[in-house]
Amino acid sequence: MRMLENNNRKIITKMAMSSLKGNKPKFAVMIIAVVLSSFMLFSVFTVGSTYFKMQQLQNIHLHGADFDAVLQGGYSEQQLNRCKGNQDVRVAGAGGYAGAAVKTDADDTLHTGMIWCDETYWGVMMKPARKRVRGYYPKKENELMVTKAALKDCGKENLDVGDTFDLTYTDQNGTHTKNFLISGIWEGYGEQQLFYVSEAFYKKTGYQLNNMGVLHVKFKNKILTEDQRTKFQESIRLNKRQNFQFTGETEKSAGIFAGMAGLVLVTCLSAYLLIYNILYLSVSGNIRYYGLMQTVGMSSRQIRRFMKTQMMLIGTAGVGGGILFGFFTSFLVIPKIVRTLGIRESAIPVTFHPAVFFITISIAGLTVYFGSRKPIKTAASVTPVEALNYRLTSAKKKAHKTRNGSLIWRIAADQFFKDKKKTGISVLSLAASLSMFLCLITIIQSHGARTIMSNYMDTDLVVSNDSLMKEEDEKWKPILKPSLVKELKKSKDIREVHPLLCAKIIVPWEPKFSDVWMREFYERWMYTPYKDDINDYKKHPEKYYSVMQGIDKKEFEYLNKSLIHPVDQKLFESGKICIIYGPGMDLSGEIDKKARVKFYLSENKNKKFQPRIAGMTDDSYYGRTSGKGPAVIVSESFMKKYVMNPYISKLNIRYTKEYDDETEDRIRKNLSQSTSAKDVSYESKIDSMKDIQKAQGNMTGVGVGIALLLALIGLMNYINTVFGNIQNRQVSLAVMESVGMTEKQVKKLLVREGLLFAAASLSLTATAGLFITYQYYQTMNYMNIPFQIPVVPVLAAVSSSAAVCIGIPLAAYRIIRGKTPVAERIRGFD
Amino acid sequence: MESYIVETRALKKYYQLGTNVVKALDGVDFRVKDQEFVSIIGKSGSGKSTLLHMIGGLDVPTEGETYVDGKNLAEMNREQLAVFRRRKIGFIFQNYNLVPDLNLYENVTLPIELDGDCVDREFIDEILNLLKLQEKKEALPSTLSGGQQQRAAIARAIASKPSIILADEPTGNLDTASSHDVLGLLKAVAGRFKQTVVLITHDQDIAQLSDRIVHIEDGRIVRGSDAYVGE
Questions:
Q1: How far is it, in rounded angstroms, from Cα A286 to Cα A641?
Q2: Residue A411: its chain B contacts at CB < 8 A?
Q3: Molecular function (GO) terms listed (chain B) (predicted)?
Q4: Which of A133, A186, A385, A577 could lock A571 by a disulfide, CB 3.0 to 4.6 Å apart?
């Protein structure tokens, strides 16, 4: 027979509510824990997705278009159709090299290229990288889409849409001068020194898309596995000349996804630890109350329901509050802070996704459920008598040996190891936050504008004499003079100056090296066959001239380090051996180790040389644009012996202080006063850094925000553990005070306890955390930047966590103890 | 004039409870001679524990002065009071108040170690033998019986050889047999080490073991046959 059920749900809910109201401070702490956890989850998801969106945007800005892979070295119609027809491909846009600007009436050393691109590339893929477009993409042969930078390079910065100007340019068919109409001007990110031309223009340049075309591919899926990438590459059947490359971030997409999943996992773990820790402490501290409830007739089932109702109320209030708090922070506070820092609001569009609400509520809800399961079980299973005698101490140990050594350290260690689970949770949480901070800060810092530049370019400024690029050597001018080098070297703000000396040379035809060189050069870079020019080369080698370049000892050391097989310095200094500059060329199988390059000086045919070729470099610093022969790199001292007044083609300058704006301004100002100032160009680390900074927007700020949020949760966990711990020990501490422990000694004890927490968390971070950071870093390191721990932020994090670990117990003790006399605190037991 | 090891003058301790003022001590003049064993007897809430806490420097009076071994406690700061306590006073509480994470031996030597002194192991062993605790040296408090814990508390109270032992209902949580056992030992030990004992109890029988009994009611000392009050 089934007894009639008594509906006692109402009274249980009422009791749960009144218990919450009656114990406001205690439950407020629990609600705050849930609020903080939900806040952290919500913020990490929102700010995190914003961060990754911004990172994507940065890549679009850096590339100047939105694509995942690029096919260079030409493409066939078939390949284009195969890409477009592939179900994994969202879009495929094409473009092609259409020539180079040579001169205008305002400047005769131009650096601007000419490009044609199809509607997809211009209209779809480049669109996210553009900020503004006026006018339209060129339709007629004489129309150009320009940028301010390209116009400035031509000395035509004042022109606008609708204006015309005369431009001399080269293409496959030779050099031409034409009057162009500016059909449009665009502003945005990516390569700026370009003129975009019409299809009509392109068709007349003589270039073929299957030789000089470039195909950009954007895939539907953001994550591409290695297998998928290989399959796609195979599907488009590349020929020997073609080069298909995925962008760094696409290659690492699976790793990046794993990294993001890891971040979410740690966030969830931290949230779980915080909620669990607080619920566990709170329920354990309340066990006597549940015992009392049982003595007045509440059944275990009712206690369970009573607690579940309480948890549900706490969970609802906490999760709701957390989401509101997170919403407020993500959408209102972050943009405000960023705006105060002087960054435009539009640079930080906080990404919002409805799934974030759902995920946050689910995870926080599940955490409250799982976090309260064990405490509820304990509360329901404890007998009333047990509950009355319940103490939050580990009674597992019955005795221990009397120990020697400092009493304070011994007690501190006892406390640390007393409840291993609780200590473990706190240490793990602190270490998780610290590790996440370490991981994020390492990634953020290494991908910061300065770091990227420092790895990509290890010099501050390269000044080039562009007049040396002209075909006719009577137009070569000695703009960079030895006196300038001397002057620069004297400056305190400049650490190093390395001139790159240059003299025109003729490399006559001979079968062993120059013939091999030309054959390879034509195959790689020319669109006319070598066999058409070989006889002309044999007869008129001066038309196929090149340069001898002299480098100083420091420059040699740098270059030698970059070679696969470093060369002998003494032989290099004496001029017996040389290094050849070969852009993208591989002669290793073609010439033997004894091969020599035979040449003579253009100014004096009698000065003949034949150094052995000891190495090859394709560092573009040693490259030049005109001349087909090999650039021969020799030592400065050797060159000076035979060339009376060599030109200085480049100056490689390093400042005493990196990124020294003032020094750079001074150098530029000095050179701008020269009559040939237009023939001087600069490659500056500061400029490049600014470009990257511009492209990055506020990525660093948002990343640091996430790291700080995680640090906050670790901190909360620790604060909670410490407060709980000191609360539970206040009688014990008061007893020790009653038998003569001074306040100083109590503080010493708490400091030592904090130090043990700090040491454990930091050790865990320095071992496991560092290992995970390294692994994450490598999976997410699509720019191949060397792993380097940012010293200042990490030291700051270490010292602040140590300070926090020490400060929190002291503060907790101060707050809990208040001004209550020892006598009253001892009574706390009863 | 006779000198006293403990002396309180017009000692008052008032508590504010809502709108009411509770007078826990209301002008107490109390004196104890060196090596004397005095019992303070009174009902629950009469102020006897408060008086003991004032003598031990565990609480601060609202008014009045407390002299212990010639020192005015009001002139000491917290730090000095703590040092004073561990050198001059041994406490025994009703709840034993042993530190749960330290074993019995460590609990006993705690005041000595806090003072930075070397532990006189022979002396401690002698006390433990006397209190029949030698076998339990390494046991944690939670594994000891009430009687054993109280004996451990006595051992801790006398370990640093203080001049005064303040015992707050030391038998409150013990059965009759254990109570007599503990008090007998306390008296014996205090006699042996020439210590003054102030014992709080509400049990007339236990109070009979002392040299002198002082009655306290509503925060005031009620004159006893051999009390020094108002002399």
A1: 92
A2: 99, 101-102
A3: ATP binding
A4: A577
Quote the number of domains for chain A. 4
Query: What is the mean predicted confidence (pLDDT) over A554-568?
Result: 87
Query: Based on the domain organization, do A774 and A726 belong to the same domain?
Result: yes
Do the chains contact at A414 and B102, CB–CB below 8 Å?
A: yes
Chain B hits for A423, Cβ within 8 Å: none
Q: Tell if the CB–CB gap between A399 and B138 is shorter than 8 Å.
A: yes
Domain ranges of chain B: 6-222
Max distance between CA atoms of chain B, in angstroms, equals: 55
Task: Report yes or no on A308 lying in a domain.
Answer: yes
Tell me: do A624 and A709 sit in the same domain: no
Counting residues of chain B whose pLDDT is more than 70, the rounded percentage is 95
d(CA A669, CA A413): 66
Q: Which of B79, B101, B160 sits opposite A414 (nearest CB)?
A: B101
Q: Is A822 in Cβ contact with B59 (below 8 Å)?
A: yes
Q: Are A440 and A302 members of one domain? A: no
- Pairing outcome for strands B212-217 and B37-41: parallel
Flag whether pLDDT at A454 surpasses 70.
no
Chain A residues touching residue B50 (CB < 8 angstroms): 823
Buried b (16+ CB within 10 A) or exposed e, A291-329: bebbeeebeeebbbbbbbbbbbbbbebbbbbbbebbbeb
Q: How confident is the model at residue A777 (pLDDT cuts 50, 70, 90)?
A: confident
Q: What is the ipTM of this complex?
A: 0.81
Q: Do A419 and A335 sit in the same domain of this protein?
A: no
Any domain includes A365 = yes
> Do A527 and A620 belong to one domain?
yes
Residue of chain A nearest B101, judged by CA positions: A414
Backbone torsions φ then ψ of A239, nearest 5 degrees: -95, 180
- Residues of the domain holding A481: 461-657
How far does A740 lie from chain B, in Å, by closest CA?
4
Across the interface, whether the CB atoms of B138 and A821 are under 8 A apart is answered no
Instruction: Tell me what pLDDT residue A185 has.
Output: 94
User: Which residues, in sequence order, are CB contacts of A209 under 8 Å at separation 6+?
Assistant: A74, A75, A94, A96
Q: Which CATH superfamily is domain B6-222 in?
A: P-loop containing nucleotide triphosphate hydrolases (3.40.50.300)
Say yes or no: A191 and A284 in one domain: no
pLDDT tens-digit readout, A657-680 = 878 888 989 888 888 887 788 888
Same domain, A626 and A720: no
Task: Record the pTM.
Answer: 0.57
Residue A517's identity, in one-letter code, is: W
In a domain, residue A270? The reply is yes
